[in-house]
Amino acid sequence: RSTPKPSSAASDVYKRQVWNTRIKKSSSLFQKLGSSISFDKRLFREDIQASIAHVEMLFKKKIINFKVKNKIIFGLNRIRNEIVKKKHKFDNKDEDIHMSIEKRLFEIIGEDAGYVHTARSRNDQVITDLKLWMIKSTNEIIKLLNISSKLIIKISEKNIHTIMTGFTHLKNAQAVSFSHYMLAYVEMFSRDKIRFKNNLKNLKENPLGVAALTGTSFDIDRNYTTKKLGFTNPTRNSIDTVSDRDFVTDFLYSASLCSMHISRLSEEFIIWNSDAYNLIYLNDKIVTGSSIMPQKKNPDPLEYLRGKTGGIYGNLFSMLTILKGLPLSYFKDLQDDKKIVFEAFDNLKNCILVMNEVLSNFSVNKKQMTNLTKQGFITATDLADYFVKQLRYPFRKAYILTAKIINFCEKNKKNLQDLTLKEVQKFEPNIKADVLKVFDLNVSIKSKKSFGGTSFENIKKMIKSYKRDLK
Ligand code: ARG
User: Fold this and answer.
1) Whose CA is nearest to atom 4 of ligand 1?
2) pLDDT for 156-201, tens place per residue?
3) With a 6 A CB cut-off, is 438 part of the ligand 1 pocket?
4) From 169, 217, 291, 450, the catalytic residue
5) Which of 61, 82, 81, 58 is nearest to 69 (CA)?
6) CA separation, residue 322 to residues 315, 327, 334 (Å)
7) Which one-letter DSSP state was computed for residue 416?
8) Ligand 1 proximity of 329 Cβ (cutoff 6 Å)
9) pLDDT band at 24, cuts 50/70/90?
10) Would you say 88 and 110 are in contact if contact means Cβ atoms under 8 Å apart?
């Protein structure tokens, strides 16, 4: 393959930096520190895609000629190939992925490469690339979350009749179906998906063509590049466009919340897996050992998930802090946006993958779940409700009467379900024998028929509806 020789004056330009005519000596320390290429090289596909759309538009608007357009596209395709095959040299001196590709284009096609940057700045280029990347990544997260929801639904289908105690303040509260408990997380992940989907609206506004900050004197067609790149409309104010990183914080906030949900699930599992609770078993796949205590099987992957949330919150706060008080329009401060987004994305993606492994590798200790329901008088509310329904008590009177019965049980070391009719009648002579049924956990759960409640019927309906949504 022959590479045309660039003219020597122009090749000098790319040998150093394009601004070398004005800036003779820049600090090599800052060249190294100020370069973003180590992380923004990840945008090479989007950069090339956007450049191709840009030159096609320039040609269509007769700003560049057919030959130049084709040469540039040929060169860009070749560079993509070189990068994929790891043949491209990323050099800190090129500052960022945009300069790196432009320089290589010059080596391949010569001075005509210089046309590619007509009516464009790196300021609009970089956010076009980043938005394209984030659209793709957002959809990837949504897909992974769909898998999580499907896994939870699978667990829930098997555990509709697995009864556990639900907690408030981590104290035994009322009986719930384990299925209902797990499906709570499907709701959280559905909201996460909605948040990520909502972000797509802003992400799909095309920044390309606003140039450095003012727009351009060239007769460009921003609608053309909008369509070509799969955006929905061009952004409407050039100054806002190059300054705006709201879409970055939206992503980071969504990632933070999603990660927080994962962290809460992890913490539940850690508690349930502890020797004190012993409500779930974790398969060997999702535990690690201790270097000193041979007996240990620790829930490290869950702790990993809980811990990573801190890092993702940090990403959100980094970005918010960088933006606070930053005047319009572009500043170098903004360059770190990509590093922050990539880190948050990688961590969130890994977290969802690990969580999905956890969801496929644990089982329920039903016996212990049943044991735990026997502590803490978890049918007390059912009993109070019974007094209201059967004896037309005001709820507060029923509550107090129930509390007295609990005091009696506690004093006599009895569970509610061990009470005899006679014992209950000592507190309220009008009580009938059917009162004893309220202590049956199945009856308790069945009775929670209000919309969104834990009744078996509701759960079955909800599972059907989630499955429909996920199809
Ligand atoms: N590497 C830069 C960034 O990521 C690209 C934009 C540079 N623009 C500029 N005027 N220095 O922010």
Assistant:
1) 335
2) 999 999 999 999 999 999 999 999 999 999 999 999 999 999 999 9
3) no
4) 169
5) 58
6) 11, 11, 7
7) G
8) no
9) confident
10) no
Pocket test for ligand 1, best of 95, 122, 214, 243 (most atoms within 8 A of CB): 122
Q: Give the count of beta carbons closer than 10 Å to the beta carbon of residue 211.
A: 24
Taking CA atoms only, the protein residue closest to ligand 1 atom 12 is 335
123 ligand 1 Cβ < 6 A = yes
Q: Which residue has the tokens 């869950």?
A: 302
Element (H, E) at 163: strand 163-168
> Among 22, 92, 96, which is best to mutate for testing ligand 1, by the most ligand atoms less than 8 A from CB?
96
- Whether residue 335 has its Cβ less than 6 Å from ligand 1: yes
Q: Which residues contact 131 (CB under 8 A, 6 or more apart)?
A: 203, 204, 205, 206, 207, 231, 247
> How many CB atoms sit inside 10 A of residue 20's CB?
14
Q: Which atom of ligand 1 is nearest to the CA of 126?
A: 5
Among 28, 38, 274, 290, the one annotated catalytic = 290
Higher pLDDT, 24 or 147: 147
The burial class, CB within 10 Å (0-12 / 13-18 / 19+), for 25 is: exposed
What per-residue confidence (pLDDT) applies to 9?
61
The finding on whether 334 has its CB within 6 A of some atom of ligand 1 is yes
Q: Is the C-beta atom of 431 inside 6 A of ligand 1?
A: no
Q: Is 290 one of the catalytic residues?
A: yes
Name residue 99's amino acid. M
- Name every residue whose Cβ is closer than 8 Å to that of residue 100 and which is 6 or more positions away in sequence: 37, 41, 88, 90, 91, 94
Q: What are phi and psi of 341, to 5 degrees?
A: -65, -45
pLDDT of residue 12: 66
Q: Which residue has the tokens 């049980």?
A: 409
Percentage of the chain lying above the pLDDT 70 cut: 97
Question: What's the 107 CA to ligand 1 centre distance in angstroms?
Answer: 22
> Which structure tokens are listed for 400?
């107090």
> Are the C-beta atoms of residues 408 and 423 closer than 8 Å to each other?
yes
- Quick one: pLDDT at residue 6? 58
